[in-house]
Amino acid sequence: MHPRNQRIAIALLSLAAHANAHATAAEDEHIRQIVQGVLKEKDQKIEQLEARIKQLEQERSGAVAAAPSPAVAKAGEPAPAPVKTAANGKPEPTVDTKLQALDKKIAALKEAAEANGLQMSGFFDINAKTGNSTDQTFSVGSVELDLDYVHDDHFGASSALVLCGNSSNADYGAPGAVFCGNSGPGALSGGSTMAGIAVALVDYHMFNDRIPPRGRIFNNKGLHIQAGRFDLPFGNDYQNFANKDRITVTAPLTTSRMQLGGYNADGIRSYGAWDIFNYSVFWTDALYANDGHTVGGRVGLAMGQNTYKIHNTNPEGIEIGVSHLSEFDGENRIRNTVYGADLSIGYGMWRLQNEFMLLNAHQQVFLEQDADGNPLPVIIPDPNTSPFGKGHQLGYHSTLTVDLESLSKQPIVVFARYSRWQPSQDLGLDFDGSTVAINDLSMLSLGFNYKFSDHLRVKFEYNDSLGTETAERYFDRKLGIAQIVMSF
């Protein structure tokens, strides 16, 4: 080909290729715009579809909530397929859930108080009894509020306020155990006492600043000197004067008979615990009369895997204690002497508590007649009166408790107790001051308790005097009691 023609051909081919490239780029841009438009339209339709689905779900949920009963398909028509809807409202709370919520509220209140140095606790109990001397089935027992305040490293205060509603309609002079619904409040007598201060004291302490108003005062190592009103650590049942601390429903005869419901008085005391040794000494008002004073104390040895575990719910080890007190009249003549010994043994799920008490009266009591001819006891001898005798008493009890939680996987504790009371007199005073016949008493107590939570416990107990009895107004030979204790 001629060179000139060759150059012309090459130029024409270059122009054609350049034109084709421009056409291809334009075509690609056009296609891209079309695709973007389609995708945008698709996104809009998807959004509209999602909005419609949400609207239908809301309408469906409203229709299901408003409908009184599920729709029933007509005969011959296929049943509509179930439609999944949003989850219904929260299920009804169970008893355990409610108790857990209550525990949280109580814990929150305690934390707020403890932030200011104050610990609060308390309890109340409700009782139901079989046929009994009060002729009432249901009764509210005692209501107690305990306060423990720490001022600084060495000073604090503690109190326990007790209220008895007397819903059992017992006479106001009846023993506290009856007046408070047969639940045995301890340290609160009858005698028209609707409410009382069981504990109110100021405390100087070393090593430990917690001041429990009552109960297991030897839980922690420390030294305390106190003045005010308090329970007297005598024997081992003083730890159980409050119903929330007692495994059983009723107290043993050593407490209800010989300690008049539980030794409690105004005065001064000191107690402490180091390693295996614990002690308490006290000087208080008279316990068995309205004049005079009392001095005494207790010494104990706690031996086991943990020195202070003996006071816990499931204690292990051995604790031995010896107690003594002497009561003097207003002229400093000795009136009564009381001796006590206690032994507690814990191993695994087993717990055995034993207590022995001996009361020796040193003054002769005589009977005198009032204007109506009724006998009255007097201590001052008179030629015209007849001897009433010295009030010697002997008492003891053995209480066995077994924690079955490890076997039954339920928080159940069963118990059995035998108590004995032997007065030297054949006559005694009833709650109203009248003279009645009394005899040696035996009492067998069987039962169990179930712990729903740290704050709710239910107890059942059956008592049988094994054929022994007295002529007292509120004495029951056989009695069954169910008790609910709510603590906080």
TrEMBL record:
Source organism, top-level taxon: Bacteria
Signal peptide (from-to): 1-23
Region entry Disordered, spans: 61-93
Protein name per Swiss-Prot or TrEMBL: Porin
Keywords from the named record: Signal
Source taxonomy: Bacteria, Pseudomonadati, Pseudomonadota, Gammaproteobacteria, Methylococcales
InterPro entries: Porin_dom_sf
SUPFAM superfamilies tied to this protein: Porins
Biased composition (Low complexity): 61-76
